């Protein structure tokens, strides 16, 4: 049984002396996961920029003047080639991102369903992050073979309207519920480094931890401060905050894949090693996130070699589940 943590308990975990915290998280990690096994996802922006939302961190919001160039929805063939490259590079999951407020029932959605089918047939897990979805849309995605849906809560409920005004925290939770009802796995996390307090970080982790079932995947992003966004001048997140967030997530979300997400380009290999030790077991690999740079593929593979990490195979969890239910 997964424990219901209170905010006070989570705050105490977060404030544990650092090495003790890493050691506790590492114990949990060893109990529930294979040490050194890291899920590698490739990320592709299938529709870029021009988004009507006002998320303060996002370079793709139409209202901010950033260098992001608007690009209409990619075609299925082009996406299929990207999936081949991602697979050849060792990715087991491909995540498709669209700068949409929400999914609409139109031709573009049909194209995305085709993309999901095509990538799934290559033996890759497919994840999508397309904004808000209804239960019916989520079911269509599931029918096309989607494995996971990413929809981040981004910050605490209390801090939400300081970051985004064009939708509410409850809108986010509603989409997560729709995704669950459709039988998809849930990927939901957030961002640190946006000027939030430690209590906001705890509030965000608390909300994620009380979801039942807990999300299968929780990305922890360090803000990539992009010129032209309201957050362009935010100071970089200290690596110690990232390690604390990951270790705390690992302890309260024991079975979840905790993803060391955006911001790795500003982290040393030693810093990332501490994040893996603290329970991170998933990353985005490939030179680009959605619109901003990510470490070079070769450099990541060099890091994997040095730290003794190995990429997790696609559908490994599903296979284990099927074995158990036999
Ligand atoms: N439009 C969809 C949505 O908002 O759900 C999907 C794409 S959106 C870019 C996905 C997530 O990327 C956001 O929820 C946010 O957590 C993350 N993100 C966006 N810009 C970021 C930045 N500058 N730094 C870190 N994470 C960022
Ligand atoms: C997530 O939590 N992080 C990824 C993915 N889910 C979609 C996106 C990070 C985006 C960073 C900014 C950019 O490259 O535009
Ligand atoms: Fe649009 Fe998503 Fe960026 Fe918000 S985070 S502006 S919804 S692309």
Quick structural overview:
The protein has 326 residues and is of the alpha/beta class. 40% of the residues lie in helices and 15% in strands. Helix 1 (7-14) crosses helix 8.
Polypeptide structure, described:
This protein is of the alpha/beta class and 326 residues long. The protein has one domain: Aldolase class I (TIM Barrel), CATH 3.20.20. Helices cover 40% and strands 15% of the residues. The chain is built from 12 helices and 10 strands. Strands 1, 2, 3, 4, 5, 6, 7, 8, 9 and 10 form a 10-stranded parallel β-sheet that branches. The longest helix has 15 residues. It is globular, with a radius of gyration of 18 Å. The protein binds S-adenosylmethionine, 6-(5-methyl-2-OXO-imidazolidin-4-yl)-hexanoic acid (DTB) and iron/sulfur cluster (SF4). Iron/sulfur cluster (SF4) binds next to loops. The site of 6-(5-methyl-2-OXO-imidazolidin-4-yl)-hexanoic acid has 17 residues, from β2 and β7.
């Amino acid at each position: 049984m997964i424990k219901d943590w209170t905010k006070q308990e989570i705050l105490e975990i977060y404030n544990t002396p650092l090495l003790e915290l890493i050691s506790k998280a590492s114990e949990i990690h060893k109990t529930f996961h294979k040490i050194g096994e890291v899920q590698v996802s490739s990320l592709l922006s299938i529709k870029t920029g021009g988004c009507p939302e006002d998320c303060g961190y996002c370079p793709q919001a139409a209202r901010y003047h950033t260098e992001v160039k608007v690009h209409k929805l990619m075609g299925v063939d082009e996406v299929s080639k990207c999936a081949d490259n991602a697979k050849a590079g060792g990715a087991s999951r491909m995540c498709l991102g669209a700068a949409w407020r929400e999914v609409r029932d139109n031709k573009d959605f049909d194209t995305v369903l085709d993309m999901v089918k095509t990538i799934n047939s290559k033996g890759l897990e497919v994840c999508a992050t397309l904004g808000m979805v209804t239960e019916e849309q989520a079911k269509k995605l599931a029918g096309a073979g989607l494995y996971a849906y990413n929809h981040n809560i981004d910050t605490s409920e209390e801090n939400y309207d300081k970051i985004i005004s064009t939708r509410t925290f409850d809108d986010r939770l509603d989409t997560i519920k729709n995704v669950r009802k459709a039988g998809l796995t849930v990927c939901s996390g957030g961002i640190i480094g946006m000027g939030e307090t430690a209590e906001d970080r705890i509030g965000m982790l608390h909300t994620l931890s009380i979801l039942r079932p807990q999300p299968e995947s929780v990305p922890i992003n360090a803000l990539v401060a992009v010129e032209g966004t309201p957050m362009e001048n935010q100071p970089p997140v200290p690596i110690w905050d990232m390690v604390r967030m990951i270790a705390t997530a690992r302890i309260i979300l024991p079975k979840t894949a905790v993803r060391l997400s955006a911001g790795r380009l500003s982290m040393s290999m030693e810093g990332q090693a501490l994040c893996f030790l603290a329970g991170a077991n998933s990353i985005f690999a490939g030179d680009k996130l959605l619109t901003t740079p990510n470490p070079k593929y070769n450099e990541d593979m060099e890091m994997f070699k040095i730290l003794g990490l190995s990429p997790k195979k696609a559908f490994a969890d599903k296979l284990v589940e099927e074995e158990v239910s036999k």
